[in-house]
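Sample 1 of the test manifest.
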Amino acid sequence: MLRALLGRWRSSLRLLRPAHVEADHAKISVTQLGHRYANKVVALQDVDLNVRSGELVCLLGPSGCGKSTLLYALAGHVQPTGGTVSIDGQRIRGPGPDRLLMFQEAALFPWLTVRGNITFALAARGVPRSQRKERADQYIRRVQLQGFEETLPHQLSGGMKMRASLARALAVDPTVLLMDEPFGSLDAQTRIHMQEMLQSIWMRTHKTIVFVTHDVHEALMLGTRVVLMAPRPGRIVRDLEVHLPMPRHPEDAALTEMVRHVQGLLREVERNTLPEATPPRATASTTASTHTLPASGLTRPVR
Amino acid sequence: MKRDAPLKNYGQKLGLMLLLLGAWEGLSRLGVWSPYLFPGPVTVAKSLWSMAVDGRLLDATLRSLGRLGRAYLMSVAIGVPLGLLMARLAFFRNAVKPVVMGLQALPSICWLPLALLWFGLTDTSILFVVVMGSVLGIAIATEDSVQGVDPQLLRVASTLGVRGLRFQFGVLLPAALPGIVTGLKLGWSFAWRALLAGELLFVSGGLGQLLTVGRELMDVPQVMAVMVAIILIGITVDRVFFQTVEGRLRRRWGLEGTL
């Protein structure tokens, strides 16, 4: 029994390895990022994160851990009070055409059809008129919304709206796609479907995606990397690479085991019992977490 | 918003209408008041018919509506941009908006003496009163609906890189449009009131004057008939025009009653 547990734990460990990303190989480089809201709440403190091109990084953590703030700082919608965010070595100072933010709501323009929403976005990005429709239809097909090109958003279901929103985001082809709990408001069935769709799209395009979620299963299902965050002050406590080949199946045994493992980690974060071996000031390569991982793995409650 | 069976709905409306007309007719026949001062609906309908037949009503209506149309178009042309400016530019929000709000407190007919002094007994005076009566309401409603645009849409526009004129006319204006149309409807009813108040006061050839003439001739049926005509025109424009536009817009925008 103990051996079986140990074996499972080991497999989890093998599949979840600490990430080492050097800043100079990174597409997105966040250094010493801090943000304090006007009400003195420290949303982020000394956050370092490097994201390689083509990674799908999930920011995972309980509410209030600053994961959304971090994402909005990447998008340029939040001006952090300290530290820097660079993309391709360029420091960002505001929203830009290289990044696109997707929200929990589909946020389609309600007076435009599905196709209209996409062509409008393409027009804003300077795509010539003659190419817009064709490109819109191509992405509508990619999210399997054929037949709904001329439909207005309010006539679509929640999942279809989100797919249309995803099509719009992909059509403008940002180098970095930032997603803020995009599937959070969908029912379980639709959410799984959306995850599978996003996964297959990512496998095809290898777009750099930063994906915020509080759902452990979702993070491990989608992420090539999962960054665990903790609240008060908002910080990164673990940065793990997920070595589970894609496409992943939602009921895959290894996935379920990793979910259990990460949930254990999060519970410890919640209880503040996580050993201080991972200082809040994690270094760029988060070497420290290499050593703490087995320890935390062992101390996690066995059910 | 559940809807009853339309037939029952219309039945109720018609029933109440008949009841009111019946009570009116009955009251006038009781002879409590002189029939010259309190004619029944039948007499009023006859008067309305005779005015309609000899063309006086049509003449006056066209005149009034022509005036209203010109003044209203002017109001919209000034009010909507003014509202947009108040919503978008700090100077207009800080400095112009309080002035607009203050002037809005002034009933439109109060502009008439000033208008008469400035423009004399002319059409221009009435136009001025009507414009002053409706432009501010339209501006305030426009400002309000632009301020009330879903912030999510603004964020999406920003992340999609929609800027400049494309943002103003492609995002902000359509997002605020249902609210603006409601404001236009309100502005129309303000304008209609101001117009008749203005027309009552001097020889203007419109519906207002038809009322005055009725009073001068002691022709109560005519006064009442013109009142009925004014109500009917008001309802027609409101129901037929504005509610159709507003309803279509709200449905297309998905604000109510999905199919």
